[in-house]
Amino acid sequence: MRLRWLEIAYFRGYTLATTSLHEHEAILDALRTDEHERAVQAVKANWQESLKRVLTQKEPRNKETQHAKTREG
Hints:
Radius of gyration: 17 Å
Order of helices and strands: HHH
Strand content: under 5%
Oligomer: single chain
Number of domains: 1
Helix content: over 70%
């Protein structure tokens, strides 16, 4: 279930999906041209940037939840 939420939250925005697509294209391009170190760096960058995007997507929801809990308590 968490993976499904991640997919929905992450790809909800067209810009996020487009950015991810470009990162994956860079990985594939490096692999196709046997530039292994560039491929490794592209994968690392994709994972790091993906994590940032996921955390950014999740932040507002966390703030709303905290605000609701504060109002209830």
